[in-house]
Amino acid sequence: MEAKQVLYCDVCTFPPEYCEFGLSFNRCKEWLQANHSDLFNKLYSEEALANATSTLSIEKEAAITQDLAKKQQKEEARIERELAKKLSSKVTIKRIERNKRKHIISISGLEVFDIELKKLSKQLSSKFATGCSITKTADKKEEILVQGDLSEEAKEFIEKLLQEKGLDEVKVEQIDDKKIKKKVEQIEEKKTKKK
Amino acid sequence: MFKKFTKEDIHSRSNIKSSAQRGLKSNFVGQFEDLEPIIDTIIPKKSQVILIKCEDRIQLYSIDNEVVLFQHFDSNLMPHLRLVHQYPECFPRVQVDRGAIKFVLSGANIMCPGLTSAGGQLPEENLDEGSIVTVYAEGKEHALAIGKLIMSVDDIKSKNKGHGIELVHFLGDGLWNMRE
Question: How does this protein assemble (chain A) (predicted)?
Fold first, then answer.
C-alpha cells in the first residue's frame, strides 16, 4: 500500500478543502490560485460550489457561512493590527558600563517579532564568543544581555535578522547608557561649582 | 485533549529502546490490523523513535521530528492526522454532516445527530465504545479529526442523542500546529 501524498495549504496548514473553515480563507484562496490552480478550479468553480451545498436547510447553511465570514474578518483585522504594531515598534540596544573599561549591552524590544530569545542568545554567544543571557526587566519584558562592548556588531546582526523576516523598516536604536548620565552629571557639577 | 497544547506542555524527550520500539509497533498493529503490511514504512526498523512526554500524561512518539503516534496514559495508541491522511483505508471511519464541521474544527465532541443525519455516515458493523475512529466530513476527501467512541455504534444509531464521540485530535489544534 502506497502512502497518499496530501497537499497542505501553506497559509493555514489544513488540506485545501478545509480552508473555508479556517480563519484565513481569503489568503488561502489566493495562495491556492497562485500555486495550484488546477485544484483551485476544482474546489471553487461555480459548479463545485453548487454541488457543495449540503443536506442542511438553507437557513442553517447561511448562518454558518455568516458566522465564518465574521470570524474571518476579525482574524484579518487582527493580523493587520499586529503587522502595524510590528512596524511601529523598535529594537533598542543599550550599552551599559559595568567597570570603567567594561561594558555589557542589553537588547530589548525583540519579543514583538516572534523571535525566540533563547535561540538568539545562543546564536549571539557563539557568534561573538561571549556570555549571553536572557533576563526579565522591571516591566516584565525580556531582554538579552551580552557581555562585552558589541553594540555596533549586535546592531548589524539584528538588522540582518529583521531583513530576513521582511521587516526592513523596523528601527534599531542604539543608546549609550552611561555617557548620557555622565554628561548630565558633569553639567550639574559645573552648575554647583559656579554657584 | 490537544485544544490548548503548546510547547510549554512538553516535559521531556528521550530516545526509546529498540525493544520498546518493537513492542510499540506490535501494539499499534494489534489495534489497527490493516496496518500490518505497511507498519515498516511508518516506523522503519532502523529508525529511532523519540518519546516526548507532556503535561497530563500525554505521550507523543515522533520519528524524524514528525509526531506519528500519541497516547494518553496507557490507553490506546492513536495516529497523528498526517498519518491518517497518508493511509486513510487503515482506520475505521465515521462521517459527520456539513453543519458539524465548524464545531469539530473548534474541538467540540461530536453529537449523535451529526453522525446519523443524511450527511453523516456510520460503519455498518458495530464498534464498541472506547474504540478509536477517524472523522470525515460530508463532501470532503480527507479526515478532519480523530475521536474516541463514547457510545457503541449501535447505541448511537438507536439512541441518537447526546455525545457520541469524544474528540481527541483535530485539524488546527495544538498538536497539529506543533512544529519542531
Answer: Interacts with the 40S ribosomal subunit.
Cβ contact B177–A13 (<8 Å) = yes
Q: Which grid cell is A172?
A: 534599531
Q: Are A157 and A127 in contact (CB under 8 A)?
A: yes
All cell numbers assigned to A85: 504594531
CATH number of B91-175: 3.10.400.20
Q: What is the CATH number of domain B7-85?
A: 3.10.400.20
- Which residues 19-78 of A have a C-beta within 8 angstroms of B? 21-22, 51-52, 54-56, 60-61, 64, 67-68
Domain boundary among A38, A67, A82: A82
Residue A111 lies inside a defined structural domain of this protein: yes
The pLDDT tens digits for B106-150 are 888 999 988 888 888 888 888 888 889 999 988 888 899 999 999
Report DSSP letters for A46-91, one per residue. Answer: HHHHHHH--SS-HHHHHHHHHHHHHHHHHHHHHHHHHHHHHHH--E
Predicted complex ipTM exceeds 0.85: no
Residues A165 and A102 in one domain: yes
Residues A102 and A181 occupy one common structural domain: yes
Q: What is the pLDDT of residues B5-27, one digit of tens each?
A: 887 788 889 999 999 999 999 99
Query: Which residue do the cell numbers 500524561 mark?
Result: B57
Is the pLDDT at B47 greater than 70, yes or no? yes
Question: Cβ–Cβ of B105/A21 closer than 8 Å?
Answer: yes
Interchain contact, B171 vs A14, CB within 8 Å: yes
- Mean per-residue pLDDT for A38-45? 80
CB contact under 8 A, B118 and A55: yes
Q: Say which residues have a Cβ less than 8 Å from residue A98's Cβ, sequence separation at least 6.
A: A104
